Here is the input.
Amino acid sequence: MKYIFKYLKTLVFHIFYGKVREVISVKKNANIKTTKIILQKKFSYNIFEIKNAILYNGQINDCAIISEKKLINEASYQYRLKNKFYVINGPSSKNIVLKIGTPSIRKNIPGSILSTLSGGAGKHNYFHWLFDVLPRLAILENAKNIASPDYYLMPSLQHAYQRETLKKLNISFSKLLDGKKNKHIFCNKLFVVNHPYVLNNDPTKSILNIPSWIVKWLQIKLKPLKQSKKKYPQNIFIDRSDSSSTKTRYIVNDNDVKSTLISIGFKIIVLSNLTFEEQVRTFQNARVVVGLHGAGFANIIFSRVGTKIIELQSPDAGDLYKNLAKTCKLNYKKISVQSEDQKLIHQHGNIFIDTKRLKKIIFSK
Here is the structure.
């Protein structure tokens, strides 16, 4: 019955909106204008300005940008697995709309819209919100000949940090569109920009080297404007007990690690219990930060130069935060331990931390 319902739904919307049968390049459509932006003298981005555009948001892996019932190749994305492990932007011929159309009620939104959609992670992951989503606003800011859009289509507005960061960027809530609620839209003008750091279709490699312009822009735009009289701890441990990946990435002897750190003056911090500004201030004031590899380490960009960062990770977690710490001139250390479950790959893994080794690193220079 479920498959029959899906088929009938697709058929009805095909009749109502027509089928998307063809993929075209931006160069072959008079409704599309491309503006090139170069940042840090070496990172080149395209801003696609599309008249009378249709956007269909597949929510997780696909986003289709459509003009005259044709899928626009360079402006759309369709993330697929490569070799069963690595995600890449697949060929436009694999975009979901070519198979099922646009099976959702279309909303007509007069005016211009900037799409910041970036795939599934931008909806719920703190790191990807900061580094995949928000920098698209910076790219558009650098186009001096393009006026600010009437609306901003965001992957989600469900999390407090999403709303708080956008408020810090002085974007009125009345101009924000939630991508989870606006799956299929038509607008007079749509702006789409390239991914801020995945420029060669190799996300696994690209994420290890975030461009420094992104870091500097976030630091400037999101720093607190006023001094705080509140006292913040100098030594913190990032507690990931609130994470959705606690079953696939955790410290086996987590309680022992916490007890050891508390005994030497550390404060255990659950970042989701803090406002965005409190997170920034916490990292601004910390002198030593310890934690298991995860999105919370994105906050190290707000740390003072020389702050000691100690990342606990499995060997497959990579050098993302090591390189980010280097960009920010932080004192980075890590404890890399093979996962006790060999089936868990990439950044996942249940690891045992030698607390004596951890203390030695903390007290070392």
About this structure: The mean pLDDT is 92. The first helix runs from residue 2 to 17. The CA atoms of residues 88 and 131 lie 17 Å apart. The radius of gyration is 22 Å.
